[in-house]
Amino acid sequence: MPLIRAMKVASRSEKKIIEQSFLDKKNIDGKKIIEILKNNKIDEYMQNIINDETNKAIKSIDKLKKNNYIEDLINLVTYCATRNK
Fold first, then answer.
1. 4 Cα distance to chain centroid
2. C-alpha angle with apex 79: 82 to 6, nearest 5 degrees?
3. pLDDT of 47-62, one tens digit each?
4. What is d(CA 73, CA 23) in angstroms, rounded to the nearest whole number?
5. b/e for 38-66, b at 16 or more Cβ within 10 A?
6. Which of 4, 10, 27, 69 is a plausible cystine mate for 14, CB 3.0–4.6 Å?
């Protein structure tokens, strides 16, 4: 998903680098791809999607019948949204 977004917002030269990485998988410049993602704030875009989906999940959980597992389920959803690697 990050690369799809990058292909929509990146410059022409950046798009060409991404496209080339798909065509020549043996010579991918990972550092350059990461730089393109950072320059286009793809990490912020992805975090916004994660936050939105987390909020939707919590709202759905809140509709469930109250039981001993609801809090744990909400904690799990929150953890998944905020974990690093």
1. 11
2. 35
3. 999 999 999 999 999 8
4. 42
5. eebebeebeeeeeeeebeebeeeeeeeee
6. 10
* Both tokens assigned to 54: 């987390």
pTM score = 0.76
Could you identify the residue written with the tokens 């496209």? 19
Q: How far is CA 10 from the centre of its chain?
A: 16
How far apart (Å, rounded) are the C-alpha atoms in residues 58 and 75?
9
What's the confidence (pLDDT) of residue 26?
A: 86
- The residues near 9 (Cβ < 8 Å, ≥ 6 apart) are 40, 42
Res 29: pLDDT: 86
HSE of 70, CA atoms in CB hemisphere, 13 A: 11
